[in-house]
Amino acid sequence: MDINEIRNMMPVIEQSNKVFHLGFMRIYDADYMYAKDMIDRGEIGEISIIRSYGLDPIEGLDSFVKYAAKNISGGIFSDMSIHDIDIIRWYTGSEIKQVWAMGNNKAAPSLSELNEVDIGTATMKLENGAIAFVAAGRTANHGYHVETEVIGTKGMLRIAATPDKNKVTVFDNNGVIRPTLQNFAERFRESYVKEIEEFVRCIRENKKPEVNAWNGLRSTEVAAACQTSLEEERLVEIQYER
């Protein structure tokens, strides 16, 4: 979670003969890959806005409060939004240069004493002029909700607008219901499998995975800037070491 530690580690990784693979699994998700392919083909034109949500089930909130009392999570943006930040960079091919973050603790007021929030948002401006909005929370009553929307000059696409567990629709005395996913292991199961397969393939063929330490550094720098913005209530300009 420490930016300097990451920077110090990167040359060690480069000089090693080991295969290093960072755990950003969303790029292996079929839906995110499908959207990426559409973007790269220019089907929605130039990206103007990206909106990305990552919401954990509220049933895990008490557990997190206990965890945060004894451990440092790095803040909600490092802990949760890091994946959304990576997707924003992946889809746009551009770095994030400005962030303005906010948050609150409506569901778990005690988190304020721990410098944590149970829900946080960040508005971002990218170097190419695109705008991104990220929301992370621990208070979703319906389950595990990860959703990304990309608006372009020729169209828009939305990934997982509802976190459907499967294609079943239930009709009963409660009305019409679509069962929803309840955790990240359910939502990204196939992504994790593909990620491990890629890791093994790179070891066998002595290749470097697409997801590397550089992706982790850049996303962590953005997440840290969001945390600073949240704590200091100001716009933060990100200065990268190129």
Automatic annotation (TrEMBL):
Tagged with keyword DNA damage: no
Family the entry assigns:
Belongs to the Gfo/Idh/MocA family.
Its domain of life? Bacteria
* Descriptive protein name: Gfo/Idh/MocA family oxidoreductase
- According to its UniProt entry, this protein's organism is Salibacterium lacus
Q: Which Pfam families match?
A: GFO_IDH_MocA_C3 (PF22725)
UniProt keyword terms in alphabetical order: Oxidoreductase
**What taxonomic lineage is listed for the species of origin?**
Bacteria, Bacillati, Bacillota, Bacilli, Bacillales
Record's Gene3D superfamilies?
A: Dihydrodipicolinate Reductase, domain 2, NAD(P)-binding Rossmann-like Domain
- State whether keyword rRNA-binding applies: no
Q: Domain GFO/IDH/MocA-like oxidoreductase spans what residues?
A: 32-158
